[in-house]
Amino acid sequence: MVMYLRIIYIFLISLFIDACSDSQADKLDSKSIKEQMDERKIHRVKPADILNQTATTGKLIINKINKKYIENIKDQIQSKSFEESIKQCNINLPIKDSLQKYLMGKIKRLSLKGKLPPHLNKKEIEMWDAYRYNVENKIPIKENSQHLGDSLMLYTSGIIINDQVCLKCHGNIEKDISINNFKILKKSFPQMDSLVNYKMNDAIGIWSLLIDKKSIIKKIR
Q: What is the end-to-end Cα distance of the chain in Å, rounded?
């Protein structure tokens, strides 16, 4: 009799465990299904919401790049010769690649002087012209967000000299840049004549961010 009761007890316990397991699996499955449905759900957002989110995302990206870029230049100047450190004067940092994946798009840095940069789309060329006109006529430049077809967003903003370290390459010759260092700059960057004699808070170029519209819409949730 005791053995019989023990068998029944074990059987009931196993049924209870199975029921709990099934319930837990159902919960996990329900959560997974809900996440997939949310992912596939059509988000009804207004064009203005997309523009606002593009501006928010653009600012975030530019701030991250600027911070890392300035840190990198300062580290190079402190640890290496001027000639070696200026070779790092670009935005091709690891963070750029990761941020481009985050945007599912492209990040470009364009000079406002000299020739029109290559490989720009029509809207980028229009914005480049507009920013350059404003700078030449001493009109304040502002950030801009706009739809670029059905699948892309374009975010642009000015590249402003906002750290003294920038003047070591882009400042006033003799005052901020020694004659010898300017010769080194010219050797590495033949177009350097158009990239000097700037001062703090001057606009030296523009940022152009091509952003996948779907990645923007997901951030509006």
A: 62
C-beta separation of 125 from 166 below 8 A: no
Distance between CA atoms of residues 206 and 128, nearest Å: 7
- Mean pLDDT, residues 11-20: 49
| Residue type at position 121 | N
Residues 6 or more apart in contact with residue 68 via CB below 8 angstroms: 93, 95
pLDDT tens sequence across 25-43: 445 456 555 555 555 554 5
Residue with tokens 């029109």: 116
Q: How far apart are CA 187 and CA 9, in angstroms?
A: 88
Q: If you average pLDDT over every residue of the chain, what do you get?
A: 81
- Helices in 86-177 by DSSP H: which ranges? 94-103, 122-136, 167-170
pLDDT the model gives residue 83:
84
The answer to whether the beta carbons of residues 135 and 153 sit under 8 Å apart is: no
Q: What are phi and psi of 4, to 5 degrees?
A: -65, -45
Cβ–Cβ < 8 Å for 177, 77 = no
Q: How far is CA 136 from CA 5, 33, 64, 130, 195, in A?
A: 94, 56, 28, 10, 14
Residues paired with 148 in a beta bridge: 152
Lowest mean pLDDT among 33-37, 106-110, 210-214: 33-37
Q: The tokens 């002087």 sit on which residue?
A: 113
Between residues 176 and 24, which one has the greater pLDDT?
176
